[in-house]
Write a structure and sequence with these properties.
The complex is a heterodimer. By secondary structure, chain A is α/β, with parallel strands linked by helices. Chain A is built from 13 helices and twelve strands. Chain B is an alpha/beta fold. Classes of the chains: A alpha/beta, B alpha/beta. Chain B: GO terms for molecular function: ATP binding.
């Protein structure tokens, strides 16, 4: 097996404020190979964004990470500032939801990309860096790239801006791209284009992608494997097919059932469908007790009994479909009953 | 047949643009000669991309935005002819729920104060029992009366916002992206709540959303907006089964389903 582009082992992230330390991510392990996309799915407080930031070592003040993160062979948690600077951009780059805040309003688009080139390799001349910017804008599908490099962020539409940010992130050909809700702020038609572009560039560059999203629709279009987080812990991990067709965690199944579908009413012969909602609201690890964080919202906890409240379940191996990779779920139930019983 | 609860005829809205950026001196035509109606007890879904004019149109329906031309009638009355008191009456009958509940609730008022103010604004008094019943109708317990917005989750706050909209027993609720800011697992709760209100209390809805799957689940009829115009309208089932206009087709095709790619 080749070395993975990203390897995370037993990652814990904690916040300290007022002398109190609380974990927001606990015991997370991830392995991601080149050319593959892992979707990290979760809701508020699930720790999906903080995990992405921990990999980049971009944690907010007061947060600290333990465990092991290896990106393209480099230990990220023990790296010093100089090493980190080298890693960011060339080994790992990030695209955020809000493209406007990732760009400086005072610099034209070309300057952003050229800066990324020259930070990575100071021997590149300004002129050459600028030429790379034009090339890269052309590659991400921005029309008239030679003119576009001179335009400013506010002159671009949301979709074009996201393309420019992708150009900036990928200009140094990173081994790993972390995309944190890259299409959430965009219209559906533009969203589809951006996802297609990311997939295309990924194939071309052979890079690994960590796609952070709350939307199973986006995940279904772009992911190879899926990691479902709940309250800072791994709820389920598996291939896209296993996660969609035989979810083994009640939360995964519940999330799928709670997502409105375009063909919903065609299925039911014109009857209006009610969504199967999960009761309550997502919690964070801070508010979770010693048991399973999902237990208070879980329609199946009664079937297991007290164990769900007193003991946090560890990920265990679940059945996989043909050719699927590992499938793990952290639930005391060995088998989920039919979907309709999952949410109360 | 009774009159539609909402009838908009050839309504336009032109925003003046400062500095004449891009669109020139004539301003920006956000809504361009739109006619639509909502029958009593009906849920009309309004979809379109950002900038298509759907929010402006929704805000004209209850007088928050004044149309540049055209007429808006609620309950048969032309809202341009309403005086101050008439407008106040209008806002009893037509309530609004916004996207971000935290932004639409006063952070310094408890839920009780927020709800009481609705009654006070319309010269009415209310009892604790009534307020509790109101909260219960949106699935919240009496203990929420004493809470401030920061003490509740997004889904709970959106329930409070729905309770506020329901307080004066409106005939029509205009919901502008009411679930877009909520977590997936919570979004379903609010959508079910709104669907129940339509079914059980006969409230009409104008539901604005960019999310076709939400609109599909929820609306009897759908109107699709593009660049300030309605380009297609019809029964929800028909629109989604066989979209006619290229804009509708593009929206339907681009909507990602939580399905495995074929």
């Amino acid at each position: 097996m080749p070395d993975p582009v990203l390897q995370v082992e037993d990652l814990c992230v904690s916040f300290t404020s007022g002398g109190v330390t609380a974990d927001v991510v606990r015991d997370l392990s991830v392995r991601l190979d080149g050319g593959r996309t892992l979707a990290v799915v979760g809701e508020s407080g699930s720790g999906k964004t903080i995990t992405g930031r921990a990999i980049m070592r971009l944690l907010p003040r007061g947060a600290s990470a333990r465990g092991r993160i290896v990106v393209a062979g480099r230990e990220m948690l023990s790296a010093d500032e100089r090493e980190l600077r080298r890693a960011r951009g060339s080994d790992v780059a990030m695209v955020f939801q809000d493209s406007m805040s990732a760009l400086s309003p005072y610099l034209d688009i070309g300057a952003h990309i050229a800066q990324a080139v020259r930070l990575h390799d100071p021997s590149v001349t300004r002129r050459a860096a600028r030429a790379r910017a034009v090339e890269m804008l052309d590659r991400v599908g921005i029309p008239e790239p030679a003119g576009a490099v001179r335009r400013f962020p506010h002159e671009f539409s949301g979709g074009m801006r996201q393309r420019a940010v992708i150009a900036m992130a990928l200009v140094n050909r990173p081994a790993l791209l972390i995309a944190d809700e890259p299409t959430t702020a965009l219209d559906v038609t533009v969203q589809a284009q951006i996802l297609a572009l990311l997939r295309e560039l990924q194939r071309e560059y052979g890079m690994a992608m960590l796609l952070i999203s709350h939307d199973f629709g986006v995940v279904g279009r772009a992911a190879d494997d899926v990691l479902v987080l709940y309250a800072g812990r791994q709820a389920e991990y598996g291939s896209l097919r296993d996660i969609f067709e035989q979810p083994a965690h009640p939360y995964t199944a519940g999330l799928r059932a709670a997502t409105p579908r375009l063909d919903a009413r065609l299925d039911t012969g014109g009857e209006r469908t009610r969504l199967r909602a999960i009761p309550g609201a997502p919690t964070s690890l801070r508010d979770a007790g010693p048991g399973c964080a999902f237990a208070p919202r879980c329609g199946l906890a009664d079937q297991v009994g007290e164990r769900c409240v007193v003991e946090a379940p560890l990920p265990t191996v679940r059945p996989t479909s043909e050719g699927g990779g590992p499938h793990l779920a952290a639930c005391h139930l060995d088998r989920l009953p039919a979907l309709k019983e999952v949410a109360r | 047949m009774s009159e539609p609860i909402l009838e908009m005829t050839d309504v336009s809205k032109r925003y003046r643009t400062a500095g004449g950026f891009g669109r020139g001196r004539k301003g920006f035509l956000a809504v361009d000669g739109v006619s639509l109606h909502v029958e009593r007890g009906e849920a009309l879904g309004l979809v379109g991309e950002s900038g298509s004019g759907k929010s402006t149109l929704a805000r004209m329906a209850n007088g928050l935005v004044v149309p540049t031309s055209g007429t808006v009638r609620t309950d048969g009355q032309d809202i341009a002819r309403l005086g101050r008191r008439g407008l106040r009456r209008l806002r009893r009958n037509v309530a609004m729920v916004f996207q971000d509940p935290l932004a639409s609730l006063n952070p310094r008022q408890t839920v009780r104060q927020t709800l009481e103010n609705v009654f006070r604004a319309h010269g009415e008094t209310t009892s604790t029992a009534e307020l509790v019943a109101l909260l219960e109708s949106v699935g919240l317990g009496a203990d929420y009366l004493g809470r401030y917005p920061h003490e509740a989750s997004g889904g709970q706050l959106q329930r409070v916002a729905v309770a506020r909209a329901l307080a004066l027993k409106p005939d029509l609720i205009i919901a502008d992206e009411p679930t877009s800011a909520l977590d997936v697992s919570v979004r379903a709760q609010i959508l079910n709540l709104l669907a129940d209100l339509q079914r059980d209390q006969g409230i009409s809805f104008l539901h604005v959303s960019h999310d076709l799957a939400v609109i599909r689940l929820y609306s009897d009829r759908v109107a699709v907006m593009q660049r300030g115009r309605i380009v297609e309208t019809g029964p929800s089932d028909e629109i989604f089964r066989s979209p006619q206009h290229p804009c509708t087709r593009a929206l339907v095709e681009a909507t990602p389903e939580a399905e495995l790619p074929a």
